[in-house]
Amino acid sequence: MRILRNRKTLSGVILLLLFVFLAVFGPTLAPYQPLAIVGKPWEGPNGSHWFGTTQEGYDVWSQFLNGARSILIISFLSGVIATVLSVIIGVAAGYFGGLADNFLSMLANIFLVLPALPFLIVINSYLPAGNKASTALMAAIISLTGWAWGARVLRSQTLSLRKRDFVDAAGISGERAWRIIGFEIVPNLVPVIASSFLFTTLYAMGTYVALTFVGAVDVNAPWSWGSMLFWAQADQAAASGAWVWFAAPGVAVALLGTALALLNFGIDEFINPRLRAAGLSRKGLRAVGVNRRHTLGLTPVVRPAGQSVLASQAEIIEETV
Amino acid sequence: MYVLARRLAFYAVTAYVAVSVNFFLPHMMPGDPVETMIASAGGQLDQRSVAALKAQFGVDTGQSLWSQYWHYWGQLLQGNLGISISKYPSTVSQTIGAALWWTVILVGTATVISFILGTAIGAIVGWRRGSVLDNLLPAATFFQAIPYFFLATVLLYLFAEKWHVFPNADFKSYDTNNYVIGWNPGFVGSAVQHAILPALTIVLASVAGWIVGMRNMMVTTMDEDYVLVAQAKGLPKRRVIWYAARNAVLPSISSFANALSFVVAGSLLTELVFSYQGIGSLLLNAVQSEDYPLIQGIFLIITFAVLAANLLADTVYVLLDPRTRQEG
Amino acid sequence: MSSLELNDPVLEISGLSVDYGFGPDAVHAVAGASLTLRRGEVLGLAGESGSGKSTLAYAVTRLLRDPGVITNGSAVFYGKDGERDLFDLDEEEMRELRWSQISVVFQSAMNSLNPVFTVGVQLTDVLRAHRKDMGRAERKRRAAELLDMVGITADRLRSYPHELSGGMRQRVMIAMALALEPRVLIMDEPTTALDVVTQREILQELGELRERLGFAVLFITHDLSLLVELADTIAVMYAGRIVEHAPAEQLFRNPRHPYTEGLLGSFPALHGERRAMTGIPGSPPDLRSLPSGCPFHVRCGYAMDACSTDVPELLPIHWEPTEPRRAACLLHTDGFQAPETLSRTTVRGEEIGSTL
């Protein structure tokens, strides 16, 4: 696929696959349970505990290996739900227009403006304790705040597609609305939907980790990197010098986010070709002897030597003198 | 200014929704909300606080849901957000009021710095397309993905623990042992010193977003004819960049709403890490002690602040883009 | 009209070649174009889209966008400080020369005017950049003067581009271009986006301005009929080459190149006898795979065997060498016989092309 030729996208895919591997096989590879006391507290990285131990004596490495699964599941599940919501709402608003559009747009804007994290904290705080550990419920709740942005983008894309002739033609020939939407409009929106999905998943991941860090969700079940960060903060890991305890999950979260962002970058460049490093590359210019950082405003000249009319005239005059 | 009036009306609607959600949420959960709170407080509440809670949430008062609702609105408009369970007998308003200014100053300043820095850098990277600066972008992408609180922790670890540049444990927002709040130089100096790391965290975590956004818009804008015209006019390069940037910055301002949501979330968590006595730490404490009135009060205040910031951004946008001033 | 030949040249383009891209995939947008623009002359540059006319003009001023590259030739400008090859200049020298001596009126005024700045700012910024000695009040006065020159009231200085009509915007562009009284004005299809009536008005105003200020104009268009009253000379381009260059009236009445003849046959005369409109068979050339020899020969009614192997150069007409005109066609070279339709020297019976 052409997309994969982009260096950024490729690195994003590889990175993501690494994390998927971690999510699938991590728990099996872990030597201990995340919450089993297996060593002395506050051990630094050593032979039996590669990442050291926590304040309680838990093995940080095992905790780390167990941390990927729930994050990936919840992030992707939330991304799917939110994307489906945004497609339904966004395309409907753009296609049907009028009152429906006004209402749906207002709805999307409200959710967009409402500060997500405090909102989610409030909702979560009222959940009965058992529900706070439910993966599916968590994903659903997070997607409540994640669909609005995608809906807005899809709405404007649908609006511009709707004006195109082939949609009009379908309408005139008597196709029903849902068929037009399903077969004419949505297929053209696939790159945008893909980008929106990645962005929403990234957002869900960040939000879920933040919620765990704050303690708004059950911190110990399911176990995630957010849990590690919560406990590292609560037990003052940074102040105590146990940097691996908080660095490992933090860097992992950042890398996972980077993977998703890189993928998104690639798709963005695919959607908007202007963002690609198009045109004359620096290498190409240097190959013909022009050293320039950008060429807007001054078209480069790469003619063979001795072209200048005036120079040759001057030479002639010099020779005769 | 028809545009602004419409935005104001929209924000009013949003505020209304937020307040309503706040009210109906506890009633939507299974069981009696006050009972839930009493249970989670572990029976530590005395009769007075239980009575206060019941009054606030309209339980056992024999009122219908709707009259409770209006009662709630009435209280709200009087500035009464209820009694805080964990900080009893302080009211929610008092508790929030003490912490609000710390957060507003920190987040406000950091966001403004981040925006200006980010768009300026983004403009230059976009202008010098194809140069080494383009390599900044993957780095910026990585930075964008770092959770605020993780960055905060790293900074805390490096600067406070390892390098002892800043005070360590008990970071807080100023040196509580030696200074008193007020306009004395000792306090101001200490406050600023304690604000540097949190502010740095917020700036570092959010600037990447502005850089990438502005760079992308700059690249698109440079394809416009009026930029080529500016070059054709023989204007100095700085002026040409300004002509382009002045247009390219507009989408960043209009996406401020979206961005602010992230910054608010991140700032809250940053405060947590540094034990900064703003709303963030307050929220965490409220969650851990299940102080529902306080949680809800904080949610409302944050929402209102975000709406106000959005209105400000909208005003700036209208000022910068003359096309929005067209009537009709 | 013949006195024009005695006018000094102001812009001399020799052997200009412009490519898009590098290496084997490079597209040759302009190939070996040579042209001379004289003081006060209006030279119409005509051709289909893709013929290279805009590319030529932008390349000369070095405003061609990525991935355009100038691969050959020179463009000597005879300016106020003597003659310089524009392709030798560095960024700063070019910047100084721009607008003060050569200015450009772009195609779409809506996109060419910066939407967030007032008209006044966009008129005075060139004064600020090139006339450092002018004070603010003086600049404002000059800006009002410029607007007045194109028939716009001074209160419009405070207007934004979106508040002006299409015709007004184009006039602002013209006023802007004349701000520093340049020697050469390059106009890239300036009236294409306008309705016919406004088009007419603007062209008329342009003519008057030229009479007054004496600048030369390089007028790029795909619509030959616009050039009838405006142009002194016309150069026709095809597939990146100049195929004919002649004084306007001679070109209209007695074309020498088969392509020109085809173009002229494509628009109707308002007066005179009815004539069947003839198009040009075939389709516009693909610059990435041009025919061998003369690029036009596959569509030419007069094509000979030699046309598919030899590339004709732009030369004076072999059998009327004293006439100030050139054509790139083998028919007009030594050893070939030009057909009657391409060798008329008398005035045609009907008036040509008064569509305006």
Structure commentary:
Chain A is an all-alpha fold. Chain A is 69% helix and 0% strand. Chain A has 15 helices and no strands. The radius of gyration of chain A is 28 Å and the shape is globular. Chain A starts with a helix and ends with a helix. Chain B is mainly α. In chain B, α8 crosses α10. With 356 residues, chain C is an alpha/beta fold. Chain C has helices spanning 53-60, 91-97, 109-112, 119-130, 136-149, 166-177, 196-213, 227-230, 248-253, 258-264, and strands at residues 9-20, 27-38, 42-46, 68-79, 82-85, 102-105, 184-188, 216-221, 233-238, 241-247, 315-316, 326-327. An 8-stranded mixed beta sheet of chain C has the order 6-7-8-3-9-10-12-11, sandwiched between helices. A 4-stranded antiparallel beta sheet of chain C has the order 2-1-4-5, covered by helices on one side. In chain C, α6 (166-177) runs parallel beside α7 (196-213). The longest helix of chain C is centred in the middle third of the chain and has 18 residues, at 196-213. At the A-B interface, α5, α6, α10, α11 and α13 of A face α1, α6, α7, α8 and α9 of B.
Low-pLDDT sequence parts of chain A: none
* Overall strand count of chain C: 12
Q: From the helix content, strand content and strand pairing of chain C, which structural class follows?
A: alpha/beta
Which geometry of chain C do the CA atoms define? globular
Spatial separation of the terminal alpha carbons of chain C? 22 Å
Give the percentage of residues in beta strands of chain C: 15-25%
Can you count the beta strands of chain A? 0
Calculate the mean pLDDT score of chain C and round it: 86
- Tally of contiguous helical segments of chain A: 15
Overall radius of gyration of chain C: 21 Å
Which consecutive residue ranges of chain C, at least 5 long each, have pLDDT under 50? 349-356
Number of separate helices of chain C? 10
* pLDDT averaged residue by residue of chain A: 80
Largest interface: A-B, 64 and 74 residues
List keywords for this structure.
heterotrimer, A: 321 residues, mainly alpha, 0% strand, C: 356 residues, alpha/beta, eight-stranded mixed beta sheet, four-stranded antiparallel beta sheet
